[in-house]
Structures are given as structure tokens and as C-alpha cells.
Amino acid sequence: QVEDDYRENTSVVKINGLPGVLLQVQKASSSNTVQVAQAVRAELQNLAKEMPAGVSIQKIMDQAEFIESSISNVERAALEGAVLAVILILLFLGNWRSTFIISLAIPISVVATFALLYFGKLTLNFATMGGLALGIGRLVDDAIVVLENIFRHMKAGERPREASLLGAVEVGNAVMAATFTTIVVFVPIFFVSGMAGVIFKPMAYTVSFSLFASLFVALMLIPVLTTKFLRVEKSDAPKAKTAVKRFNAWFNQWFEKVLDAYQRLLVQALRHRKRVIWSVAGITLLSFGLLPFVGVEFMPSSDEGEIEISFKAAIGTRLEVSEQVLNQLEKIVREKVPEIESSFGRVGVEGQGMGAMASVFGGISGSHAGQMRLQLVPRNKRTRTTDEVIEALRPELQKIPGADIKFAQQHSMSMSGDKPIAVEIQGYDLETGRELAQNILASIEKVPGVRDAEISREEGLPEMQIEIDRERAAQFGLSLAQVAQAIETAMAGKVATLYRDPVKGQEYNVLLRYQAKDRFSMQDLDRIFVVSPIGAKVSVANMARVKEGAGPVAIDRKNQERIITVSSQVSGRAPGDVAAEIQRRLKTEISVPNEFTVTVAGMYKDMVESFQNLLFALVLAILLVYMVLVAQFESLLDPFIIMFSVPLGIVGVIWGLFLSGYTLSVVSFLGIIMMAGIVVSNGILLVDFTNILRHRGKGLKEAVLEAGRTRLRPILMTSLTTILGMLPMALGLGEGGEVEAPMAVSVIFGLAASMVMTLVFIPTVYAIFEEKVKRSFKISDEAGA
Question: Which is nearest to 575 in space by CA: 747, 418, 468?
Fold first, then answer.
């Protein structure tokens, strides 16, 4: 019989509860996600006008939206940070002109950085914009130090030209050292491989070039501008008429009290040096004791509002029954989740269409399986997080009979489709692999924080197995392929040719197969014939026998080895801690046969590799910072004293992560590396100016006290502007804010702790080295002479 009909339906797609068809658009590898998405949106608007009545186009997933909102939030954080930094500068200097001159460093450096991005063929993305936002507060530090020193000379009565020249030269060495140490920490990042290198190399390029630009502005442009435009009142008497000047006069009086208090503290520190050293050592040891309480993970999770719910009924369940499960699931979700913006559900798989769908639904197969994807409204329009929505849905959906429900939250920054936990089992024997996977599944389900653990290989797919007698088939001159092809054509059908409509010109597949009544049961094999080479019709039943059996839905391979993956999600606990506990359980509880290997992979593997690379980068960055300081100071001891700022900064990082609840991830690790280059700036300012005063003939104690009092203002200004510049990013507000917030928290707390302790600790260590170590070197040199 010849019929004009539709192909048999082997899957069901529903969009917002209505029947639908999915169209997925994938960008080319060299294309820009946002540009492609914008072009697709524009084309969809045109297509929507041509749709027939009752048919509409609904966008259910758009990766560009999260990227656009994330970049927008980073831009806002950078702008807010710049405004806060400028306000702080005005507070300390109380001079509109000086504030404006310093503030010019931000737009000039940013514009110069955009030029680099253009010629370097880099895009404005999460990494490059994040680098700019992180560097905003630091961009004005060099300008602050130079202008504050010029400002101080002007207040002392020097002419603008002489004050600008002397002020810039006096701190030029310290400014260059501080900037080069910040830049040099990013050099190792350029050689980091793996995921961490992919993510952070553009950020390293961006920050480094923006700091180069800020250094040029500070040493070349600021002195010129101060000579021409800066005017300073020589008298600090509060005769001011405006509110700003009255406030500035009050602030200066208050700050003088702060200077006096700091100087008294410094005097006591120099008197009780051992007590200072032991106190700082005790704080450091106590802080490192908090490390076990700081979680570990690869990348911070971001609340993107995308939830994936998968379910599996019994193997062999008909499509109609699975569709009823999907309907129940959608009904419950609609009732319990008012935050839904759109939903998309699917049951079964269409065979040939699976390749296009795999990236959206992770490889569902069979009429018994289905999935549903929920898109929640933006984060600022809902009170619950995505995790809270999942935990609220979990007990409700478990009530659906005959369905195994699993949840997953989608993250754009995961950089791979791997789940947080994945245990890979490699080996040939199917039965042994199945038993081993079941044992591992039972073990990891006991680990706190594990959610929705499952085995990748489905067992027990009911099937009718046809065993062909090779010798019998050979007697008829037939191969196994010919017999199998005949059975496939009869049962599943085969496209024999194409039919072209003479009026419309459209082509249609012509599917050839047996009628439904002739392919209903395995007994119908008697009616399947294969034409032998001599033209005789041979019944398949004469060459084959049929038996009932069961087999896996699919057999996966990795590196040419059969593999089973036991994977799970993580909730309420850091993924790295969960993976480490699973690693311990595998060693103590699981007996692995000789022909099998079991490894913890997935994101945990990426995390371990990235941490090793970043740890090497951190050690190399510290060495490079020390080498730069040695070149600048032409000394080994002074840079060694300054380098004590780094462990003090790490103490602050530990407390910052502990108090904020963030984990140690590749993002916060990069913050530690960046912090290592920034915190030495305060030590550089103190040691460099102390050396200048010593060369002018002042005694050790007098030079240390005067250097501390003179450099307290620029140290506070540079540190606080950097902290305020990063504060909006550290708050992690808006879409994607959680990803880069740990980096900003690491820098802020590290810089704050280092600043507070450096102001007392570095002068104390400097005095000890000057009196004990350098004196010993000098005596030895004289004795040798």
C-alpha cells in the first residue's frame, strides 16, 4: 500500500505546556556568541511576522543573555568603583583640582587598554572587563603617590614647577617598583595551561597594560598638570567659607590626630620588637588554621536561573506513558515555581535528530526517558536562588510514581559539560563493570553533599535478539550484512527513493517497509525473505533463531576502553571537599579488579590541574616580585624586608574567604596572585622613603618614624582606593557577580590585612635588620679588609 503520511512520532516536545518543535542554532567556533545571538534575534523577529495563525516562536534558551547581563554588571561595578575611589581622593586631599588631575588616570588608562584589546584581537568579555574592573582602584595609585608628594612640597611653600619636579623624582623609584611588581605577577599566568590559562590570560593582558598606562600617566602627565593647574593654600587655618573647605579643614585636623596615634604606636613597636614579631607570627599561624574550614571548588557557581530536570521510567516504557509523566512533572512545577519565565520538555529521542539535541539535553535516549528545562526570571526579580527552587521541588517531584527524577543547574562558567563529581570506571567486562559501578554508587551516596548520583550506563533494555547461523547463511550465498539489512528494511524501513511533487517541486522520502500487521511479532520473521545471488527467495527463519534478552542502552568508550561514569551533583557543600572525601572512600571501601581502573574525573580533575598550575604561578610570581625589587633597590635585604607583606596579605585572604563564605577556587587563587603584587606597594613606600631619609643623614629611629608619618597618607589613600574600586565587584550583585566576587574579596581582605600589619611590622623588621643583620655584614666586611 502507498500512503501519503507523516513519519512515526518517536518523541514529544512541549514548550510552555504546548506541542512544539525545537530549533537549535550553534555558532561557528570562530564566531562571537553575542553577535550571533543578536543576529538570530533580529531574524526571528522577521520570521515571527510570517508565522501562520496559531503558531508562535518562543525563545527558550539564549546563552548571550547571561553574557550580556554579566558584562553589564561588571561595567557597572567598574564605574561604581571609580566613583568611590574619586570620592575618597577628594576626602583626603580636599582639593577639586588635584582630585580631577588624579581621576584622569582612569579614563586615559582605560582608553589605552581598549586600544590594546583592539590590536590584540581580544573581545570585551567576562575576563577582560573583569580585569578592568579589578584594576580600576589600582589605576589611580601611582597618580595618588606622585600628586600627594607634589601636594606636600607645595604646601611646604615650594613653587609649582620645583615641587612637581622634586615630588615626582622623589617617589619615582617607589612608584615604578610598585607598578612593576603588580604587573610581573601576571607573567606566570601567560604560561599557565589548562582551563585556568584559557580563562585568565585575557584578564592578565588587560590588567597589565592598564597598569603600564597608569604608570605613564603618573610619571609624565601628572607632574605637567600639577605645574599648570594645581593651586594649594599654604595655610591650613579653618577660614574657609564653603562647606567642602570646612569639612576638609575638620578632616585634616582629625587626620593629624590619626598621625599622632600612629606615631605613638610605632614608637611602642620599636621598643617592643620581639612582642610585635611574635604577635604577627601567632596571628599568621592562627589564620592558616582556618584553611580546613574554607571549601575548595573549581569555579564559583553562578545563579543563572536555568534548571534541568531529567526523569527515567522503567526501561521499555511506551512513549505515551512517559508523556503522562512529563505532564505531571510540568503541572507540579507550574504550581510550585511561580518564578518560571519559560519551560521546555521532551520525551523520547528521534534517532537521527539526536546529534543536534545532545548539547541541549545531554544525550537522553529511548521512549522511557525525558527531560525538562526551566528558565527562571532574572535574579533581581526573584527572592529564591536556583538552589532553593531545586530543593523545594525535589520532595514534590519524588512523589511521581515510577519515575527516577534528577536535577541539574546549568552554569556557563563551568567551561565543560562535566558534573561536579564524576568517577570513571574503565574495563572491558560488562558484568564486572556493572557491579563495580553499583558499589561505587552506594558508597558515594553516603557522602554528605552528594545529590542525584547516577550511573551512565543503563542496564536491562528489553530486546529480541536474532542470532544468525553463519554456516546456514553461507550455504545460500548470503552474508550477515545482507540478512541484517533485509530484517532492518522489513521492520524499521528504508528510504528507497525520493518523490518530487510536480507542482510544488518539493521532495519527499519514500520509505519502504512491511505493513504493520506483518511486523507485529517475531513470528513474522517467517515472512521476511532475502534474495540470494542466484535469485532464490530465502526465509530468514531458515537461517536465524530469535530469543528474548536484555542489554545496555549504550556502551561508551574513552581512549578505546569501555567506560562507565558514576556522576552526581553537589549541594550545600564545596565540590572539592566532596570529591576529596569520595577519593578517600574509593581507596578504603572499594576493591577494584586488576583489569579495571577507577579515577575521580570531571570538574575535580580540572580543579586539581588548575590548582597545580596556579600554585606554580604564585611561587614564580613571588620570585619575580623579589627580583624586580632587588633590581630597583640594588639590595638583597631591603626587598627581603618588603616581601614580608605577602604572607601578611595571605592571612587576610584566608579570613576574607572564611568570613564571606566563598571557597578557594581558581578565581580566588588568581586574586591571591594579584594580591601578592599589590601588597608590596606599601612596604616599598615605607622602606624607600626611610632609605632616602637615612641618606640625608637622619638616624635610624628618627628616619623610621618620619617615614611612617609621611607615608601614612599615601598608603591609606592607595590602599583604600584599590579596596573601594573593587568593593562593588566583591559584593557579587547582579547576574554572574558570584563568579568574580571571590577574586575581589581575596584582593580586598589581603590588601587590608597587609596594610594594617605592614604599617607596624615592616618598620619593626627594618629596624631589626638595620641594627643586627646589616651591622653584622658591615663588621664582617671590615674584618675581612
Answer: 418
Model confidence, pTM? 0.77
Residues 6+ apart with CB under 8 A from 404: 311, 312, 313
E strand map for 306-420: 306-312, 340-348, 369-376, 404-409
SS3 at position 559:
coil
- What CA–CA distance (Å, rounded) separates 79 from 81? 5
Q: Which residues of 412-441 are buried (b: 16+ CB within 10 A; e: fewer)?
A: bbbbeebbbbbbbbbbeeeeebbebbebbb
Residue 656 one-letter amino acid: G
Residue 407 C-alpha cell reads as 536535577
**CB neighbour list of residue 577: distance below 8 Å, 6 or more residues apart:** 295, 296, 449
Degrees to nearest 5, angle at CA 767 with 763 and 772 = 150
User: Tens digits of per-residue pLDDT, 201-233?
Assistant: 888 888 888 888 888 888 888 888 888 887 766
CA distances (Å), 486 to each of 470, 479, 498, in order? 15, 11, 20
Please compute Rg for the chain using Cα positions.
35
Query: Of 303, 301, 308, which Cα lies nearest the Cα of 405?
Result: 308
pLDDT digit string, tens, across residues 545-568: 877 777 666 778 888 888 888 888
Q: Hunting for cell 623588621 — which residue is that? A: 765
Give the integer Cα–Cα distance in Å for 45 and 59. Answer: 11
C-alpha grid cell, residue 487 = 530484517
| Cell numbers standing for residue 783 | 674584618
